[in-house]
Amino acid sequence: MEKLSSIYQRAEDRKGGEGNLSLLLTPYHTEAANNQELAQLGDDRFLAHFTKKVFQSGFVWRVVEQKWPDFEEHFFQFDIFKIMMMSEEMLEKKAQDPKIIRNFKKVQTIKANAQMIYDVQVEDNGYESFAEFISAWPEDDIIGLWAYLKKHGQRLGGNTGPYALRALGKDTFLLSRDVESYFREHKLIDGGLTTKSSLNTIQRCFNEWQQESGYSLQTLSRLISYSCGDNSIQVGL
């Protein structure tokens, strides 16, 4: 397994120096800056971000952003209990409105993912909210959280769930094409990317790099991407 210092140096060389790389590693804007803030978010914001990423998957992200105020209005600012009370007929009617993106199957995920959030709220699990549940999940098993969202939610598999978590402020790496390419080029994985064996190996590597550096999983994920691949992302582009 490669030392992070070598990965960092290669990324620095490819991006034109330490200053450029530091700019590229500037943290993204998120709903919460850390797990403590994340635990204080309303569960409606979790449903909102899950919904936004579901609709952005396979679609033009800019269009979803432009229509997002109408999504918020149409779905009661993603109030969990109001969503839970929506009938199938009401969901279908909402899905026909041109103010949002007319995709009934994706609209159906809003209620399904509200159910997942509600189920956590009412379970005797020691958490008062879904936000507390997510914030308490250990980052050294972030793949376990991905699996939970995929199993209990709808259309939150692949990178959809992780993208939503990152937007909310839950630290996570992403399985981008460059990250996958790195792990394959260095013979760390050789099977399917999302097999249990591959995911465990990837998580173990990120855990070791984090212990070595103290960097967030987001920063490590971006460093890996910048150290390999087509090198298309540059400062000022």
From TrEMBL:
Q: TM spans, by residue?
A: none
One Pfam family linked to the record: Adenine_glyco
Q: Which GO terms describe its biological process?
A: base-excision repair
Q: List the Gene Ontology MF annotations in alphabetical order.
A: DNA-3-methyladenine glycosylase activity
Q: Do you know which InterPro entries this protein is assigned to? A: Adenine_glyco, DNA-3mA_glycosylase, DNA_glycosylase
- Where does the source fall among the domains of life? Bacteria
Cleavable signal peptide: none
Question: Which PANTHER family does the record associate with it?
Answer: BLR0857 PROTEIN, DNA-3-METHYLADENINE GLYCOSYLASE 1
Kindly provide the name given to this protein in its UniProt entry: DNA-3-methyladenine glycosylase I
Annotated organism of origin? Thalassotalea litorea
